[in-house]
Amino acid sequence: MVGSTAMVVPLIFAKSGILTCICVLIFVGLVSYYTCDLLVIHYHKNETDVADAVFRILGRKWFYFFSLISAALLFIAAIIYFILCCNVLYTLFCGCLQLFFGLSDFPAKDTLVLSQFSYQWTGIMIGILIFFLFSMKDSRQFVRLNGYGIYCIAIFLLFILGIGFRNIFTKSLTMDESLADGVKVFYVKMMSDDFINVLSTFALAFFIHNCIYPIIKLNRHQENNSRDVCFGYLLTGIIYSSVGIFGSLGVLCGPNDICEAPRKANTVMDYFDPRKPLVLIVLLALALQLLTVTPILGYITRTQLMSLFFKNPQPKGAAPVIFNIILTLSCVIPQIFDIDPKLVIAFNGAVCGFFLVYVIPIGLHHKMLYGKQDELRRSILSPSTETVLLASVVEVENLDITALKDDENEINASQDPQAAELNQKLAKTRANAISKPLFYLGYGALTVYGFGLMCLQLYQLVAH
What we know:
2 strands, two-stranded parallel sheet, mainly alpha, 464 residues
């Protein structure tokens, strides 16, 4: 769960206030964990993906809807990673050219310049490279490289924590803005009413719903899935809180400091002098991480959509090429016009998060608790059989899922031990269920909150 959001969290803490952000982080973390746990509750060991459970419980239409929204989330995530990658690489290139060749006077990132080396040309060059990387038919090499990404993230986290600790012990800090002079005394904002973007950003930071099943499937003790997912959310919250607090303190820049307040900052690294060797190392680590993740996101999005529409993850013809062109242009155009990645992150968290964090888990849970028995025959279907059906959909070319007749999916639970196990699990869940009025009151409030957050984020995006 710790990903690209970590690069913008310090700026959000600095702008919206440390205490405000911590309260929002705790709230969003609890809500995200609770809805994620709804998926965990209804997981069966033979299901490899959340889409399996959606198909089994909610049916074919919801399966398609879930797959489309999940692909949209990854599509936008690829755009976010591309923008951040270009941002880091341009800063890295400028730092190297200044340090080793004495060049200077590079255009600002928010200035559209095509007559010399600029942020825009960086995006175009990386866009050409990323197009060919999006076209790969096998992502295993990048997955292996991305395995080292944890070390790149660790370098970034240690740098942020170190800078923050240094400022705590070497600078005078105050929570009274009138006492700060920006030279000897620095203002630390604690609270503000600017929390909409914070809610949306942390919604994406804690988002793991569409890939939770492959994670818990590896758990040796399946009975501890909910507990272990809770620990994962707790650890993520601690990491983001630490990055936000120490990162926001780390960008308190004074004269002759390693950092300098930029005219516009898209990430926390925009504050630091790229001519410093330590900053160059961190920028290089982040660039490697972002460059390996971006093609993987493009590859997964393409294979999901191709499987959905062509029943084949690698179809022949122009469709994959057209998709790669569309995705590349969708990445390059926002980067050229210097769209703030914080806005894209907030949009993705609020809009896609509304469906994947609230609508799908709550709808799935409602169906399992209060659905009529004849409507739940898919949920009693042996997950192993359901997995075979789904695998056929995504792997066998020219298979029409609509040809799968309902009567072919009916299995006698008494003759299938896996179906019997699922029946027993369903009975236990229903025995512990709350009353319908309380369900609609509580989960309705959650859904209204998610919908309201989406509407507010869309309004802010248009107003921006």
